Amino acid sequence: MTSELTSLTWVVALNAIMWMPYIVNTIMVRGIMDAVGYPEEPKELSGWATKMKAAHYNAVENLVVFAALVLIANAAGVSNDVTVMAANVYFWARVVHLISYTMAIPWVRTLSFAVGWVCQIAIILQLL
Fold it and tell me: Cβ atoms within 10 A of the Cβ of 52, count?
């Protein structure tokens, strides 16, 4: 497996567990019945949980692009220092994005998002 595919695996694993903390908060705030149901007036989640849920949605949206780029690069046989570094940095940018979004650290959140985006652009440039 290439380094880029390994990074993609880690990004997917991160996305696969991001929901757990905010779902625990949902159960704690709303109770199990409302957490698994569709209450008409659900209680608001804790601020951090609301932000983490938004960070998870953002991660899923960006996973589509990142995964497609890594898979295209793999299929095309494109793997070099730039693609390896971009894929590795992308994972860590998403970790920082999740933490900084959840903790409401605006500049860090925005910078980490931008770093992830630049990583995607770097892979695109290697493909073109």
Answer: 24
Contacts of 125 (CB under 8 A, 6+ apart): 82
Number of domains, the chain? 1
Q: Under 8 Å CB-to-CB from 94, ≥6 apart: which residues? A: 11, 14, 59, 62, 112, 116
pLDDT, tens only, 60-115 = 999 999 999 999 999 999 999 999 999 999 999 999 999 999 999 989 999 999 99
Distance from C-alpha of 117 to C-alpha of 24, rounded to nearest angstrom: 30
Q: The CATH number of the domain where 59 resides is what?
A: 1.20.120.550
Range of the domain at 101: 3-127
